[in-house]
Amino acid sequence: MKIGSKVYWRKSSGEVIYITPEIESDFARETTKEDDMGFYPQLKGFDPVQVEVLQLTYRQYYEDFQRAKSYIVNPNTGKMEFVYVDTGETKPEHQAPLSDQVSELRARQDSTEAAMIALMDVTTKS
Description:
With 126 residues, this protein is an alpha+beta fold. The chain has 2 domains: 2-95, no CATH class; 97-126. It contains 3 helices and 7 strands, in the order ββββαβαββα. It has helices at 33-39, 62-67, 98-125; strands at residues 2-3, 6-10, 16-19, 23-24, 51-55, 70-73, 80-83. The chain is elongated, with a radius of gyration of 20 Å. The model has no long low-confidence stretch (mean pLDDT 88).
């Protein structure tokens, strides 16, 4: 069984408190927020009402975490945002994960190519 990481973050700010490790094991099992908050020392002492959890799929955003300088969870959307380059700004601009941006661009490219092929078929049949 493959279990992705869980990102624990402050509801008020989006600050990431702790990211659980990914697990790949025949003996792995899903855990609850309560399980994790009682098990991981990094989460002990936090008010569970003030903490939210984002469950990732196995290897989701793996490269983004490796390349990013920092990351948060956008408290308005509940989605991960990353900073990849240190611009020296006091408050860096977070953006959607590059892996999501690449997927979106590929989908747009496929759609554009399909439209161009359809258009070429129409113009050559005339």
